Prior knowledge:
Number of strands: 15
CATH architecture of the largest domain: Alpha-Beta Barrel
Mean pLDDT: 92
Distance between the termini: 36 Å
Structural class: alpha/beta
Largest sheet: 8 strands, parallel, barrel
Bound molecules: phosphoenolpyruvate, magnesium ion
Amino acid sequence: MNGLGTSPGIAIGKAFIYETPEIIVEKIHILDIDYEIARLDSAIEEVKKDIQKLYDLSLDSIGESDAEIFNAHLMILEDPELYSAVTKMIKDNQVNCEWALKKSAEYFISLFEGIEDEYLKARASDIKDVTDSLMRCLLDIKPLDLSQIDKDSIIIAQDLTPRDTIKMNRDKVSGFITKLGGKTSHTAIMARLFEIPAIAGVKDIFELVKNGDIVAMDGENGEFLINPNKEEIQIFEKKLALRDVEKEKLLSMKGKPSISQDGHKVQLAGNIGSVNEINHVLIYDGEGVGLFRTEFLFMDKDSCPSEEDQFLAYKEAAEKLGNRPLIIRTLDIGGDKDLFYLNLPKELNPFLGYRAIRLCLDQEDMFKIQLKAILRASSYGNVKVMFPMISSIKELRDTKSLINGIREELRKDNIPFNDDMEIGIMVEVPAVAIQSRKFAKEVDFFSIGTNDLIQYTLAVDRGNHHISELYNHYHPAVLNLINTTIENAHKEGIWVGMCGEAAGDEKLIPLLLGMGIDELSMSPSSILRARYIVRNTSKEEVYPHLDTILNLATAEEVEEYLEGI
Ligand code: PEP
Ligand code: MG
């Protein structure tokens, strides 16, 4: 049986069915409006205390930045729009507080669920979590106690809220299987944080499993078995033992330098979408952040974040990393990422359209605010900036001239910044790879964004499932562009990194090392494996194969060749 693997790891344990009692609300006509509003106020106070307790509890177990989720819940609880929607309905319709809360919650949840962006969509579950807590408080419904479970339990649930995860006795939990949720849901985020294997999206899980059934699961590929036989259990136990050995091997990479067998250093960094994720980079001993996707700072808001808000976020990130580099990528909106408050037009070819640097240069005021915030943060750490989707030298020059203007302003106002902050571009449009010698004369570094470089080189939409087989980073055309970019960067004396998904591919890393890549930035959990590969590869041994590989005809031939070296 299969679901969506959302947190890797193998687990074998006993099913514990966690069904939250159903909330049934009746519509009641009321006469005493003040009384209903007072009930709402006191429920809010009570839930507030409860969330505050959870926040304190989570500070100890998961640390300040990940405990932030409970602050976000407090904000929802105190949200004036939600409060006024509920009280207005009580007053206007003379209905009980539970009914008004149910209707208002449904409205806000569907509003968020309707947003295309996956991250914001997932926030609908936060609103549900908070309003459900309020409702349970009003109706005096007590949820099942997750702190009293047996050892090696596999929790089977509709979905798990951060509150459930924090309250449960995690030493006794071996895995989660949920009916709902996806990779960005909180169950998945928390599960990865606690390194508990998790599978989501199993629609009929409650029909399949009973309390006490034995469940074997693999959170990597989403596979699970219910009451497996002896041989099946043995297979899972073997996988479990192998994973443990593998984990030990990778953990032993912590603190070791990322240097190939013949002495070539590669900087191994992590990609992040929020300041909190730096914790993961540090846990996996990342040597910096090679890509900070700033668009997420702009997404869970109803308008652009102010210069001060951005400055504080970039400064916090820079300070958390100390001397390690922090490469901040300026806003990459458009394509598949929307900001509803910008009212972007619908386009026929959004990935070829009003996106990233194009949009920023057009919306100069917004862009200048971001550049200023980045420059200000540059005096608090090892900050570098890079621009997404550059396709012409003119765009780069226009952007640099904006930066120069801001430097002048900062100087005039005596605001400190690092005048030597490195400026780079992402190489994700083939034109730039082809012209990389020219670009290299005008920047301090390149970071190859293979996610887009592949789609633009092969004319394959990166998100279209129908053609996903054509999307392949082993394609010789892509590899030739990567090689040209690295060669040209080095000819002009600048360093070159890679921050697309391909950077974490263990089969590709030796080849990239052979080409001379200086930095690889990837999902933090891949860093230790990448270090293991770098430390077990000799650049001089790969180099002689380079010509042959670049002259192969197909992606399949390249992959096969790489498996053999
Ligand atoms: C890329 O295109 O490779 C990249 C890292 O940027 P994004 O995935 O954010 O487009
Ligand atoms: Mg990109």
